[in-house]
Write a structure and sequence with these properties.
This protein is 30% helix and 18% strand. By secondary structure, it is of the alpha/beta class. It has a single domain, classed as TIM Barrel (Alpha-Beta Barrel). β2 and β3 form a beta hairpin. α2 packs parallel to α3 and α11 runs antiparallel to α12. The protein is globular and about 60 Å long. The chain binds iron/sulfur cluster (3 copies).
Length: 460
Amino acid sequence: MFRAAIDAQVLLRDGEVFMRKRCPDHGWFEGLIYADARAYVEQARFNKPGQAPLRISTEVDRGCPFDCGLCPEHRQHTCLALIEVNTACNLDCPVCFANAGSGFNLTLAEVESMLDRFVELEGHPEVVQFSGGEPTIHPELIAMLDAAQRRDIRFTMVNTNGLRIAEGGPWFGEFAARRPLIYLQFDGLTDETYQVIRGAPLLETKLRALDRLAEADLHVMLVAAIERDVNEHEVGPLIEFGLQHPAVRGVMFQPVTHTGRHPDHDPLRRMTIPDVIRRIDEHPGGSFRASDFVPIPCCFPTCSSVTYAYLGDDGEVIPLPRVLEVDQYLDYITNRTLPAIDRDILHALEGLWSAGSVPGEPTAGRFACAACDIDLPALSDLARRVFMVQLRDFLDPWTFDVKKAMKCCIGILQDDGRMIPFCTYNTIGYREETRARLAARRRGRALPVATAVTAPPAAR
Ligand code: SF4
Ligand code: SF4
Ligand code: SF4
């Protein structure tokens, strides 16, 4: 069943930003959306005009967010597309926005057709990410990686909890030979954190997975779900750990999304991007400061912030915004009046400050070469010298905002040709619709698709 869309007020109160709304059936809701009101207002200047996808897939009928998608009203193309290859998992985490459990395994043929559709929608797409459930337990994942790499898609990622990787063995050898980029679920450096968020003491398993990935020379982004009073104190140590580990090219922090499966929470005390940045800033001896982070302009600016650092020979960590005025370049309001701006640097920064930017890849290295006044090693080594720290605050029923959804640049590819923006998929009811449709198909019973799929060309 789909949720209803209701009017909301965005309130600036006591230095923070809240969303307040009244549902006719359930009464008033209020949730914290950004713990820094001044930054929330100032970041409007990073709102870069969107770029339409090559093709759209649905008509406007009921209005956003019920026409996904992408429909003609959508304001951004897709930097990063996900394919959820299954709903099953080898963990049963108390915190799981995908609500993993029984459901479906996509077939290789279904995945091939989704990949073709992604190329059709985007032309030369940047990144496809295989996710789930847990994609590494899908029996055809390796064939799916091959299918992605045969197409004109620049990067292939796998989003994993790392359990199967930690086991090693012949499967891991075959998997590593495809050289996917790894998004490794890695919430902290203590068993207490894993016990609360993942339901098991997993630290040793996670470290083993990471060491196997290092031995195979694969590039890893650590992905940490951060919950208030659980692991917020681990934010700074996680970055310093990542800087030291040979496989790790960056850390992604995601405040826990209270959709799918999650424990009870207080929506007025949820973690937000400014809370995580504050913890990074306060970490004694930490390598990054609050002023190093700049919003990503291709989506709505308060959805995500990122920074990059150059890693020197002597262990020096040099955040890019300290050697280049990144925020001045990415200020899309003031820039219109600055004719002298260096377009090459702007384009390089736009590549980095994008949801499709990939840590540890040559793109990141090339940028640092063009933009910074740092004595650089050979280009082949350069990508390994760039370290990314990103924050992304997904929307949930307390914080869902149609203007953010309409500019979302992360999509979930569907078996019927649609691409549904990520937070809309998780929050509104599309995930449940897809799961029911695919599970019914596996049982040999077709369910109707809610929205008609069309493919009229749309100008970029
Ligand atoms: S989120 Fe985008 S694709 Fe979905 S209905 Fe809104 S504008 Fe259309
Ligand atoms: S959060 Fe990930 S690892 Fe945990 S149950 Fe869900 S899909 Fe599995
Ligand atoms: S996935 Fe959610 S948080 Fe990310 S850009 Fe889209 S709407 Fe914003």
